[in-house]
Design a protein that fits this description.
single chain; about 250 residues; mainly alpha; 3-stranded antiparallel β-sheet; about 75% helix
Length: about 250
C-alpha cells in the first residue's frame, strides 16, 4: 500500500510541512508519486520515518540522523538495538530525575528540610516521607496535621536529633518495663504513656487524651506502625497502646 503525505503526517504525529522538509533535504524521500505528482509513501518509508523520529526524540540533529540511516552497511535490526539501548538509558535517567523531583516535592510538603544523609543520620532506615501522601489524604484538613507541618518546617537537623533521642529514650524505658514484667496499666507504664503524649504535644501537635488513644489504636491496627514498634521490642505496640488507654482512663 501507499499513503498520502497527509495520512503519514497523522500516523506519525508530525506536520505535513515537516515531511516536506525531510523530502527537500533528502532525509525521507517518498518512494512514489501519484499521477498528479503528489507524494506517496510505502511501508519502507514509514519504517525509515519511525527511525528518524526515534533519533530525533533522542536529540540527534538531522544531519547525524541522515549519516546513520544512509550507512550502506547498517543493519535495520542494529538501528533498533541501538535505539533501544539509547532509549533505555534515557528512560533510566528520566526515572532518576523523576525520583529526585518527587523526593524534593515530598520534603517540601512535609517540611522536613534535611539532606538524604542527614535524614539517614536522624531516622536511620525509617523514612518519614514515605507516608506523606497518605497522611495528607487522611488528615490534611485537620488542625493537628497543619500544626505538625508548620512545626516540621521550622526544624533543622539538631531539632530532629533531639526529637528522635527523646522518642528512643521513652521506647527504651517502655522496653525495660516490659522486661521487668510490669503491666501496661501499672503506674510506671501510665507515666511513660503520659510522657509520650507530652512528647507528641511538644514536638508535633497538641495531643489530647482522645487524640492519644486514637494514636495508640493505630499503632496496633496499622501493621506498619506495629512493625516499627515491635522492631524495638516484640509486643511494644500493644503494650504502648494499652498503657495509653490506661493513662487516658486515669486522667478522666
Amino acid at each position: 500500500m501507499s499513503y498520502s503525505v497527509g495520512q503519514v503526517a497523522r500516523f506519525a504525529g508530525v506536520t505535513v510541512r515537516t515531511l516536506h522538509h525531510y523530502d527537500e533535504i533528502g532525509l525521507l524521500s517518498p518512494s512514489g508519486r501519484s499521477h498528479a505528482g503528489h507524494r506517496r509513501y510505502d511501508d519502507a518509508d514509514l519504517d525509515r520515518l519511525q527511525r528518524i523520529l526515534f533519533y530525533r526524540e533522542l536529540g540527534f540533529p538531522l544531519d547525524e540522523v541522515a549519516v546513520l540511516l544512509n550507512d550502506p552497511d547498517a543493519d535495520p535490526k542494529e538501528h533498533l538495538r541501538r535505539q533501544h539501548a539509547l532509549l533505555s538509558d534515557r528512560i533510566a535517567r528520566l526515572q532518576q530525575m523523576a525520583k529526585a523531583v518527587e523526593h524534593a516535592m515530598e520534603a517540601k510538603r512535609m517540611g522536613i528540610n534535611l539532606t538524604p544523609e542527614e535524614k539517614f543520620e536522624v531516622f536511620g532506615d525509617f523514612d518519614p516521607e514515605q507516608y506523606a501522601d497518605e497522611a495528607e489524604a487522611r488528615w490534611g484538613d485537620t488542625d493537628a496535621y497543619k500544626e505538625s507541618a508548620r512545626r516540621a518546617a521550622s526544624y533543622g537537623k539538631d531539632d530532629w536529633q533531639r526529637i528522635q533521642a527523646e522518642a528512643d529514650d521513652i521506647h527504651g524505658r517502655l522496653t525495660a518495663l516490659m522486661d521487668s514484667g510490669a503491666a501496661p496499666d501499672s503506674a510506671p507504664a501510665m507515666d511513660l504513656a503520659e510522657e509520650h503524649r507530652g512528647w507528641m504535644s511538644r514536638n508535633h501537635y497538641e495531643c489530647g487524651y482522645e487524640m492519644h488513644t486514637c494514636l495508640g489504636e493505630m499503632y496496633v491496627a496499622d501493621e506498619r506502625f506495629t512493625a516499627f514498634y515491635d522492631a524495638v521490642r516484640p509486643g511494644l505496640a500493644v503494650f504502648l497502646r494499652d498503657a495509653i488507654l490506661a493513662n487516658a482512663a486515669r486522667a478522666v
